[in-house]
Amino acid sequence: MKLAFSTLGVPGLPLADVLRLASAHGYHGVELRAHPEEPVHPGLGPEERVAAAAACKAAGIEVVGIAGYVRVAAPGPDEPVIQELYGLLDLARDLGSGFVRVFPGAEESQSAEDADATAARRLGTAAEYAADVGVRILLETHDSHRTGADAIRVLGLVGHRHVGALWDVMHTWLGGEQPAESYAALAPHLGYVQVKDIASAEDTAPLPLGAGVLPLAECVEVLSRHGWDGWLCWEYEKRWYEGAAPLEDLLGAGHDHLARLLNDSA
Predict the structure, then answer these.
(1) What is the C-alpha to C-alpha distance for residues 120 and 83, in angstroms, rounded to an integer?
(2) Are 254 and 207 in contact (CB under 8 A)?
C-alpha cells in the first residue's frame, strides 16, 4: 500500500509547500481538496493547471484524488450537479489524477429509495465522460450513506467500472460497521481508503494517527489480508477544527504509524 495525505489538513497551503511536506515525510501522494479557497480548484486556467501538474511530476508526488464537494444524491435538478462533476473530472485529468471524490449528500426529506436513484442516475450519466477522460468517480462513505452497505446500494444501481467507492474509515465505524464488513461491501468498487483518528463518536476532532479509537490496525489488516495494494490517505480535518494541532508537526509520526501497521499486517 502507498501513503498519502489530504490537503484538508493544511488549509490554503501553496502547492509547492504541500509537495515539500510530502517529500520530506515519505508520502508518495496527496489528495487535493478542490475548493475555491484552496490553490488547486476547478477555476484554474490552462496555464495554472499545466504548472501544477509539472510541479507534482518534478517532486515525484502523485495526485491521488481530487476531493470535490458534489452531493450526488441531493434534491434538485440534475444538470448543475453533473456539470460540476464534469469540471472536477477535467481537473483530475489535467493533473494526472485517477480519482474524483464526491459526497452522497441526501437530505432527510428524501426517502432512501429516491436518494439512491438520484445518485445513481447522476453518477451513471457522468460515468461515460469519466471513462473518456480516464478518471474514476468515487462515492465516499459519508453523511447520508456512511456505511459500505449504504454506498453499494447506489453503486449496484450504477454498475459502471468508472464509478467506485472511497472508504472513509471514520464514517463506516460511526455507522456501526466492522472493518471486515465494510471491506466486503466495498471491495469490488474500492478506489482508495481515507484513514484518520478521533477520540470518540461524540468528539470527532482530528487526532494523531494511533491516538484515538478508530480501528486502523483492523482496517489495514483486512486490506493486507486480501492483497489490496492501493492508497491509504490520511484525512486530517484541520480545516474544520482550527484548534487541532498543525498537521505539519504530525506527518512524520503519522507516516511511521501507518508503516508499522503495514509491517505488522504483513
Answers:
(1) 15
(2) no
